[in-house]
Write a structure and sequence with these properties.
The chain is mainly alpha-helical. It contains 7 helices and 3 strands; from the N terminus they run ααβααβααβα. The protein has a 3-stranded antiparallel beta sheet with strand order 2-1-3. Helix 4 packs across helix 6 and helix 5 crosses helix 6. It is elongated and about 70 Å long. The N and C termini lie far apart (about 75 Å).
């Protein structure tokens, strides 16, 4: 280093606990924000005036969700924020009616082991 102080070297200017007001858990809805939970901006959400009252991190998350549905993991990566902070901020946005959170469609369940054995036995019989 040449003695100069760069912002990138200093780390984030605002610490995570300041962004969440010291909270570590998402709001009152009790929604689990798994890494694969999908977040989309609520079509009937509050207007631009209500959105302008939000903090910069909240607005950044809304901006990321506006273009396409995002997972919690994608939001954390794109916003360059810790996942725990993103979960708390999403809790705020959910309570305010700004976003909707849904679980992705579960992967197809594997067939019953008994069925697989019957198929194998049928193939062997050929």
């Amino acid at each position: 280093m040449n003695g100069q102080w760069y912002d990138a070297d200093a780390g984030p200017l605002v610490r995570p606990y300041a962004m969440t007001g010291g909270r570590t858990k998402p709001g009152l809805h009790g929604v689990r924000f798994d890494l694969i939970a999908l977040v989309v901006v609520h079509a009937d959400g509050p207007d631009a005036v209500a959105e302008s009252l939000l903090g910069p991190e909240h607005r950044a998350l809304l901006g990321l969700c506006r273009s396409e549905t995002q997972s919690v993991a994608e939001l954390a990566a794109d916003a360059d924020l810790p996942v725990g902070v993103v979960r708390v901020l999403l809790g705020d946005l959910l309570e305010g009616g700004h976003v909707k959170v849904s679980r992705p469609v579960p992967p197809a369940r594997l067939p019953d082991e008994r069925i697989l054995r019957e198929v194998i036995e049928g193939l062997r019989a050929l």
